[in-house]
What does this fold into?
Amino acid sequence: MSDDRAVQLSVNVDHVATLRQARRAVYPDPVEAAGDAEAAGAAGITVHLRGDRRHIQDDDVAALVRTVQGKLNLEIAAEEEMIALALDWQPGQVTLVPERPDEVTTEGGLDLASQGDRVAAAIERLAAGGIAVSLFLDPDPAQVERLAALVAAGAPAAGFEINTDAYTKDPSAANLRAVEETAAAGAAAGLEVYAGHGLTTANVGAIAAIPAVEELNIGHWLISRSVRLGLGEAVREMLSAMAAGAQP
Ligand code: PXP
It folds into this structure.
């Protein structure tokens, strides 16, 4: 892998906060974990501020905005409360995600066929506030075409993150091809392409090898692995797996 094709890793530290909130304690601290992840080579940090505040809290995001050295990627639903908070905090990037209160984790990408207008309005407000906007989309080139149409109509999204959940549950050739084709459609449309959900050291290789994919967003595996290795070593292990996968 040449240096100009280094896939970046954004570490999602939500589940450090999940452990803290299980006891309503003050530890472990996702802000400290973010520092450890960056020291080990992560290019950025991701957190999802959910409406129910089940893991990351508002104060965590405010502290991360001050301390993260690389890109802070804030995942939020396209809701008024969240958009206002993001405009106030000014993270480097916002990723708009669908959110259902009773889901265990984000279950799918945004459907731009049914929610295009609402999403376009959120993109316009966030972008006008100086924030780069990404959308979480399922591996479906048709969704990328809809996003490109929104951008052409004046909703300046910078890119999108491909939901890799289906591939990680069933790493079939068809599921990989869907991710590859969606990534290629994004690159052809001039959009930044990211990917994530369900990635582990065992399945990351083929996703890291997709030429258009610039950054991977990985959380649950890394925080789980850190119980045995420590977060720094877990991040280094993942970076090695990504680099091995991205070898030509
Ligand atoms: N991308 C998005 C949009 C997510 O909501 C999540 C989970 O918070 C991830 C990536 C990371 O998924 P995982 O925790 O399975 O690595």
Notes: The beta strands are 8-12, 44-48, 71-76, 93-96, 132-137, 159-163, 192-196, 215-218. The mean pLDDT is 95. The pocket of pyridoxine-5'-phosphate is lined by residues 12, 14, 48, 75, 95, 97, 105-106, 136, 161, 196-199, 217-221 (CB under 6 Å).
